[in-house]
Amino acid sequence: MSSVNDQGRRDFLKKTVAATSVTVAPGVVLHTLQAQAEPRTTPVTDKVRWGMLIDTSKCADGCTDCVEACDRENGIDLVNKPEGADDALWERQRPHWIRHVKLRDNMTGRITNLPLMCQHCEHPPCVDVCPTGASFKRADGIVMVDRHICIGCRYCMMACPYKARSFIHAEVAEKLTRTPRGKGCVESCNFCVHRLDNGQTTTACQDACKHQAIVFGDLNDPQSPVSKALKQYPSVQIRDDLKLNTGVRYTNI
Amino acid sequence: MTGKRSITLLAILVSGLFLGLGAAFAGEAVEGTAKADKLESCVEPTDVMRRRHFEFIKHQRDLTVHQGIRTSKHSLAGCVDCHARKDAGGKPVPVNAEGQFCDSCHDYAAVHIDCFSCHSTVPGGK
User: Fold this and answer.
1) Contact call for A198 and B70, based on CB within 8 A
2) Which of A138, A171, A180 sits opposite B66 (nearest CB)?
3) Rounded to an integer, what distance in angstroms lies between the CA atom of residue B88 and that of residue A155?
4) What is the predicted pLDDT for the residue at B107?
5) pLDDT in tens, A99-117
6) Exposure check for chain A: N or C terminus, fewer CB within 10 A?
7) Domain residue ranges in chain A
């Protein structure tokens, strides 16, 4: 049984490497076009559903490239510890859009690493519980927070099964134009929505992953790399018992 | 001769001191350094902007956050990009700093704005 599994994984690795090398090439072309890419002028539609497939077998132990790229892209590295705040408290409460999770199978000792971010559910519990409508799902499947109407109640943080949301506890001195951030609002991964709206088709974490463990794209397009990979290889949703139909899937957990 | 030399030295030292003082005040915005300083009017006629700019920004904010429309005509990022002045060293000065574009009117009208508790006050990181 295990040999069959191993064979499957080997095939998967081989094919995915081939697939990603194909996708990387147009990605590079897209990068040069990005400077001229026009910002979106029409509303997003549900023709597109953004999603991601993460191959945990490629996710290397000790590598935090995706987390660091996310921090830089979204200005999270500009959020400093509030003066006089307790170190341990800060470590627990500082904002994270991607958390690096390490799983250990107690029986076999096998270690799995994976990045865990907002799973962009089709039926997001954070949206269900939000009393103001600040937590919402965009037509293209991205689950976001409208900070203009967020009152900071943190119900969504309680409701999220993935611990994906962070709360900004103190005023932030420096912020980027693309990622506004202020005291008293929740926030979480938004699939680098500013990139997508400006015509780019990649996320910062995907670009940063030198192991090519992250494939991002349109789940509704059968020709997109992510759809092809999902069709070909077995994948799981984390906590699929909740029937949330997540936009982020994992293989080899 | 030595006296003359020491006077020259003193003069250099004193001018150096003034230069140092000048550098300390380098945070002051220089007039004419904002893109908007060189333009006749904003994205709408001036009287319309004065009366309704907040409606434009608020309308665009909902379009941007919920529908992903990122045109810059009525965006706050566009306001900041155009109206933030630079200091003598070429560093942008926050658009809401005392005496700067947003503050100069809002201070007079005693209308407190919350935009910049979250949004960037200088261009950058689009």
Assistant:
1) yes
2) A138
3) 47
4) 93
5) 999 999 999 999 999 999 9
6) N
7) 2-251
B67 touching chain A per CB within 8 A: yes
Residue with tokens 């665009």: B60
How far is it, in rounded angstroms, from Cα A9 to Cα A55?
Answer: 10
How crowded is the C-beta side of A151, counted as CA atoms within 13 Å? 7
Question: Which residues on chain A are in Cβ contact (under 8 Å) with B70?
Answer: 39-40, 194, 197-198
CB-based burial, A185-195: b 16+ in 10 Å, e otherwise: bbbbbbbbbbb
Which residues make beta-bridge pairs with A249? A53
CA distance B126 to chain A (A): 5
Residue for token digits 């809401």?
Answer: B96
Summarised one tens digit per residue, pLDDT across range A110-150 is 999 999 999 999 999 999 999 999 999 999 999 999 999 99
Q: Three-class SS string for A162-225?
A: CCCCEECCCCCCCCCCCCCCCCCCEECCCCCHHHHHCCCCCCHHHHHCCCCCEEEEECCCCCCH
Look at residues A207, A210, A209, A192 and name the one whose alpha carbon lies nearest to residue A28: A207
Can you list the positions of beta strands (E) in chain A?
Answer: 50-55, 99-104, 111-116, 135-137, 143-145, 166-167, 186-187, 214-218, 248-251
The answer to whether A96 and A77 are in contact (CB under 8 A) is no
With a threshold of 0.90, tell me whether the complex ipTM lies above it.
no
C-alpha–C-alpha distance, residues A84 and A72, integer Å: 25
Range A2-251 classified under CATH 3.30.70.20: yes
